[in-house]
Amino acid sequence: MSKSVFYHAGCPVCVSAEQDLVNLIGSEKVTIVNIGEDKSRIPEAEQYGVKSVPALVTPNGNVLHINFGASIEDVKV
Amino acid sequence: MSKSVFYHAGCPVCVSAEQDLVNLIGSEKVTIVNIGEDKSRIPEAEQYGVKSVPALVTPNGNVLHINFGASIEDVKV
Predict the structure, then answer these.
(1) What pTM was computed for the model?
(2) What InterPro entries does the database record attribute to this sequence (chains A, B) (predicted)?
(3) Going by DSSP bridges, is the β-strand pair A63-71/B4-8 parallel, antiparallel, or unpaired?
(4) Which DSSP symbol is given to B2?
(5) Which tens digits make up the pLDDT trace of B60-76?
(6) Which of A21, A41, B4, B25 has the fewest beta carbons closer than 10 A?
(7) Are B19 and A53 in contact, with CB atoms under 8 Å apart?
(8) Which among A3, A16, A62 is the top mutation candidate for probing chain B, defined by the most B β-carbons within 10 Å of its own β-carbon?
């Protein structure tokens, strides 16, 4: 993939920090996916190796878990 | 400050992921500080609110702790 994917679950505390990161990278270079709202995207996130949100999956496939919002297991519930 | 500051301690496991993030933001927009090598920069990092490394301090002053490499307390030793 050529764009990064930013997975989050709407964590209100982290919104400012997350938005900062997206702005730094450039919002046109990041796809933002809210797996709290769109649970059908959770298996895809897991396949990339996302263990908690917020997380950024880079074009190289590296997963950066940022701070610790919520375990992906908790988002499933 | 106008640039982001990326604090790390040389964690070899995370180097690839960290480098990815710096590349995404653009290396010219990030100052990289290795507080493992340059311990005199630790108080500055703490003042920004850095609790563990790697961490990115954004120009807005938000601290993004990425994955969990090492506690800043462990880097002091």
Answers:
(1) 0.81
(2) Thioredoxin-like_sf
(3) unpaired
(4) -
(5) 888 888 876 667 777 77
(6) A41
(7) no
(8) A62
